[in-house]
Amino acid sequence: MRHCINCCIHLLPDNAHKQVDCHRGPPHSHQVCPTCKGENKILFRVDSKQMNLLAVLEVRTEGNENWGGFLRLKKGKRCSLVFGLIIMTLVMASYILSGAHQELLISSPFHYGGFPSNPSLMDSENPSDMKEHHHQPSINNISYVKDYPSIKLIINSITARIEFTTRQLPDLQDLKRQELHMFSVIPNKFLPNSKSPCWYEEFSGRNTTDPYLTNSYVLYSKRFRSTFDALRKAFWGHLSHAHGKHFRLRCLPHFYIIGQPKCGTTDLYDRLRLHPEVKFSAIKEPHWWTRKRFGIVRLRDGLRDRYPVEDYLDLFDLAAHQIHQGLQASSTKDQSQINKIIIGEASASTMWDNNAWTFFYDNSTDGEPPFLTQDFIHAFQPDAKLIVMLRDPVERLYSDYLYFASSNKSADDFHEKVTEALQLFENCMLDYSLRACVYNNTLNNAMPVRLQVGLYAVYLLDWLTVFSKEQFLILRLEDHASNVKYTMHRVFQFLNLGPLSEKQEALMTKSPASNARRPEDRNLGPMWPVTQKILQDFYGPFNARLAQVLADEAFAWRTP
Fold first, then answer.
1. Mean pLDDT (whole number) for 147-152
2. Does some domain include residue 179?
3. Which domain of life is it from (predicted)?
4. Which of 159, 283, 473, 529 has its CA 20 to 30 A from that of 247?
């Protein structure tokens, strides 16, 4: 923003190299100030940079006037001019050094007070970040504050079009037609004496065959190769033999941690896997249901070969080996002990990510996906247990931005990206339903921040169309941060896990939080208060609906 003082003094805080008049004319054009009426007055431009503490004043004459004209001025005029310049400089310096930017008529590039005073503060994905921040910005960016009314109109437009409708469910035959191979591999019934859904299938390979030779997780990622080396070593010792044939135990998870990203799922996973009765997949987040089964590694890189369901099942082989031992145990006591094992999976994309549907399911109605991830999980595991960890979606979005943004991260950049995402979301809502916009792959890829991930109510309501509420355990990161022990006990009870020894429980509950914010991100400080207010306005109706569904006002995240 630029303001003209006496039509001759121009303040250009961030774009001093652009020669624009106070009426925002095009660069490098010759304008005439209406008050000066074309006289050869002196123009002053203030050129500031992010880390400078003092403005650099560059004095130029309008048009082709040179310093000769200035020197020919009468001595009295020169003195008055210099005196005025000194006064102006002192006033600006006092504002800058005092941090009183809101009293200036320009948006200042100096952001004092926006850095953390406590270097131990961590990302809210881990519970320690839930403690009250002791660093708050002392100022608002005045230009963003002035933008608030126009952004509020966008949010009002979105809110007026919010309608939580019930989706139409596909029938089982439609699901089978979409995933013929998956339904040919996973049986209708599982072993009755295993808590996890397991079954035996014939293995036709020889004892020199590498069972993981064609596994896509190995082929496409070097970091998984050591994991599969361990699986190879254990594989041949855990086959069952009957009638000259080899059989391997296959298993699916008993429970899923389905979301959301940057809500503490990693911390929950790291603590829960310390329980001796819980075994997770060999890879923490396989993302098979949402991405890999469609051949997606990174959507912007296009589609690869689809990962078959066998590659996903391979990830549970270590747990299956232990369950197999229990099933083959000679004594009832050993069987009882081993068969307490349950398998879990913790892909934080499972709840919300259905971006691939547009590539494979083209018989949609009004832009809404005809099939969702939960439809297929429910088809095989109608009794699955589902754990969800949520947090204030405003804070979730900022944490998500800091984690995934690669460069130029700042409160200013975040604000601009939020504004752009809201405009894109509104444009979609003008023509399509809420569900169509939430699951719109093109929109989700276009938005510079993942605004849609925080629309928890939309996703949960869609999951509740196929699973009952009793099959969910829905937690808040804020509660987990304040009382880890209580949260973990709720999880144990939900999964019917046995009690821990005092030493085991201390190890689980007192270990440091996982997935801390990177040190370089901690120094960026919090988002601008005006950005926070904008996001609270946007997410408010969705949070209210979530609190209503769960009958718990804590999920409204209302500010006190």
1. 92
2. yes
3. Eukaryota
4. 283
98 within a domain of the structure (yes/no):
no
pLDDT of 207 over the 60 cut: yes
- Assign residue 528 a region: left if phi > 0, alpha if psi is -120 to 50, beta otherwise? beta
Neighbour order of strands in the sheet with 245-251: 198-203, 245-251, 240-242
Residue 382 per-residue DSSP state? T
Question: Based on the structure, what is the number of domains in the chain?
Answer: 1
- Token pair 């993981």 in the structure block, residue: 212
| Residue 232: half-sphere exposure toward Cβ, Cα within 13 Å | 16
**Choice between 200 and 305, residue whose per-residue pLDDT is larger:** 200
Both tokens of 335, joined, read 């069987």
Which tokens hold the place of 39?
Answer: 């006289």
Give 87-153 as a DSSP string: HHHHHHHHHHHHT-GGGSSS--S--TT-S-S-TT---TTSGGGGSPPS---S---HHHHHHHHHHHH
Let me know: does 323 contact 196? Beta carbons within 8 Å. yes
Q: What is the pLDDT of residues 379-423, one digit of tens each?
A: 999 999 999 999 999 999 999 999 988 788 999 999 999 999 999
Going by C-beta distance under 8 Å and a sequence separation of 6 or more, which residues neighbour residue 303? 294, 295, 296, 359
User: Which residues fall within 8 angstroms of residue 535, CB to CB, at 6 or more apart?
Assistant: 393, 394, 397, 418
Q: Is residue 399 part of a domain?
A: yes
Expressed as residue numbers, the domain containing 379 is: 172-555
pLDDT digits (tens, 9 = 90+) for 468-506: 999 999 999 999 999 999 999 999 999 999 999 999 999
Q: Look-up: residue for tokens 């339904």?
A: 183
Residues whose CB is less than 8 angstroms from the CB of residue 137 and which lie 6 or more positions away in sequence, other chains included: 111, 113, 114, 411, 525, 526, 528, 529
pLDDT confidence band for 366 (50 / 70 / 90)? confident
pLDDT-derived band at 509 (thresholds 50, 70, 90) equals: confident
Integer Cα distance of 153 and 150 in angstroms: 5
Q: Is the residue at 80 inside a domain?
A: no
Please give the structure tokens belonging to residue 72: 């020919």
Phi, psi of 387, deg, nearest 5: -115, 135
> What is the pLDDT at residue 381?
97
Helix pair angle (456-463, 529-550), 10° resolution:
20
CATH of the domain at 347: 3.40.50.300
Interhelix angle for 393-404 vs 529-550, to 10°?
A: 120
